[in-house]
Amino acid sequence: MSVQARSKEVVAMGKKIKHVMVVDDSRFGLKKLSEMLDSVADFKVTAKAKDGYEALAILKRQHVDIILLDLFMPKCDGLGFLEQAYFDKLLNNTKVIVLSEIQDENVIEQALNWGAKFVLFKPFTSQILIERLRILTFERDNEVNQHPTLQTHVSKHLMDSGLPSHTFGYQYFRLAIEHILNESIEVFSITKSIYPYVAEVCKTSSGNVDKAMRHSLTLAYEQNKTRLTAFLTSMNYKDPHRKPSNSEYIGMILERMWFLNHFVGLIPHESDSGFVDMAAGIGVAGVMRDVFGAGSVDPLIATLPTLGLVILGGIIGGFLAAKVEESMEG
Known about the structure:
Order of helices and strands: HEHEHEHEHEHHHHHHHHHH
Number of helices: 15
Helix content: 55-70%
Structural class: alpha/beta
Largest sheet: 5 strands, parallel
Strand content: 5-15%
Distance between the termini: 68 Å
């Protein structure tokens, strides 16, 4: 497809072409990645570099939306590029997908700390690559419409619970929770409305969304078990040492957001408050579902410590808010 034909198709679809830079020391790698994107209407490879130094030079003189970065290269490798670009603040409007043949947890963690958004382990198919790109471009295209505070807090709660941020499931959970809050959808309709929504956005299937979410929870359980267990314990989950289902996990994240918004005041925007209020209803509904399902009030009794903390938090939060207002008026 020619550039002209590609541009016409993208304009017809109402989308803007995303400029991509490919960084790989292998000519074959550069060619293969370019070919993977050549047939995709809204992505265009506009820059190529064979090492980190060339990539830095290109990035300083021209803008690209996305960088596909090979991790292991001579002269200046992927980590070297990320470190320099991070300190030079060259990635503020550019998102990086790291490509790696080696699954070294420490190296991957460092790459993510220096600004990489995703990690793709070789070999991968063009379908997987394009799916990752779709997620990144969905975020960029919706930044003006998506409330930044809401997105920031959803991401924070997911990471605080131990969910690995470089996985498909992490992005799917984030999109699902934001969709629930924005559209007032019940979490119990996860298979009927939430999975299809995320699947449509990311150009995949509902089955893949479900599997990716479960896989992310499995990784959280295996790699960040202490954080996940602490999160489940704080939410009074029935068995903190057992991996929760997707709907249970979403419900707990929503419940945590509601608590922090109304009793600690960490989400101070009124526009968010109305959305997050719904999480209270979801949390209560989840508890009552367990009560009726078990035919016992034990699940309700088990939540009493959490309710006590909520009430205590409300008292403390109200007292502090009154003091702050008093000092401001004075």
